[in-house]
Each structure stands twice: as structure tokens, then as C-alpha cells.
User: Which sequence fits this backbone?
């Protein structure tokens, strides 16, 4: 099933610049970033509800709900920052630079989260080669932004 995870990761990567671009255009046309953000999350909720019609997953047991650490409930709130950044700056920076910055920062922060085993990730040391990969990504974003 590793290949399925890779396929979905690739699809998420493809979706990322499209999401930023469509969200930014919505903000531009509406001229109201908060309303555009609400529309983005509203349509996302409708989409998840439609998937649920087919998936028919039961509600989680209360024992599972109560066992969730407080910080694990914050994903939706955290995603507002990424959505709002895309709405406001993706068109200004361009798809390559905006996506490059967000993905590069994500990789660098991920290396740190893995290294310290934070927020549920298994410990994976920040080896010199992993750090070099992060540095190369920073260089890649610089190249994309300059040329």
C-alpha cells in the first residue's frame, strides 16, 4: 500500500498550486479575503460530506474522542493560515515561488518535527544528508524566484 500513499502524495502536490491559484482568484474577484476564505472552507465541508455519503464511516467512539490530545484538534485552524496566505500572496509571488516557498518551509519544519519526534511523528534523525536536502530546496526556491 506504500504506492497508494505515494500516489496520493503526488496528487496532493499537484493540487497545491491549483488550490492556491483558484483561491487567490476567488479573493481577487470577490475583493473580500475573509469571504473567500469562508467559501473555500464551506465548499470543502460540502465535499467531505459528499464523500461521507459514499464512505459511510460511523462516528468515532467517545473513548477515542476523549483520548485525542488537544493539539490534534487544531489542524483546521492551522490550515487557515496556509489558505489565507495563498489567497493573499499566490498571484503576487507566482505559482512557482509561492508553492516553492511553502513546500520548502514544510520540508525544513518536517525535518525538525521528525528529528524531535513531535506531534505524533516517529523519531527520524536530521542527518547531514537530510539537512543538505533542505538546503538544496532553499537553493531551488532561490533559483525559481530569480529566473
Assistant:
Amino acid at each position: 500500500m506504500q504506492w497508494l500513499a505515494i500516489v496520493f502524495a503526488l496528487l496532493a502536490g499537484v493540487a497545491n498550486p491549483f488550490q492556491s491559484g483558484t483561491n487567490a482568484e476567488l479573493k481577487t474577484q470577490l475583493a473580500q479575503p475573509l469571504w473567500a476564505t469562508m467559501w473555500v472552507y464551506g465548499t470543502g465541508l460540502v465535499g467531505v460530506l459528499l464523500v461521507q455519503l459514499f464512505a459511510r464511516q460511523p462516528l468515532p467512539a467517545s473513548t477515542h474522542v476523549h483520548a485525542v490530545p488537544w493539539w490534534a484538534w487544531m489542524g483546521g485552524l492551522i490550515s487557515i493560515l496556509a489558505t489565507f496566505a495563498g489567497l493573499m500572496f499566490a498571484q503576487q509571488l507566482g505559482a512557482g515561488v509561492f508553492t516553492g516557498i511553502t513546500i520548502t518551509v514544510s520540508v525544513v519544519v518536517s525535518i525538525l518535527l521528525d528529528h524531535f519526534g513531535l506531534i505524533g511523528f516517529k523519531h527520524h534523525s536530521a542527518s547531514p544528508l537530510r539537512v543538505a536536502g533542505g538546503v538544496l530546496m532553499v537553493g531551488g526556491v532561490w533559483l525559481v524566484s530569480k529566473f
Observations:
- The chain has a mean pLDDT of 96.
- The chain has six helices and no strands.
- The helical segments are 2-30, 33-55, 62-67, 75-93, 95-116, 128-146.
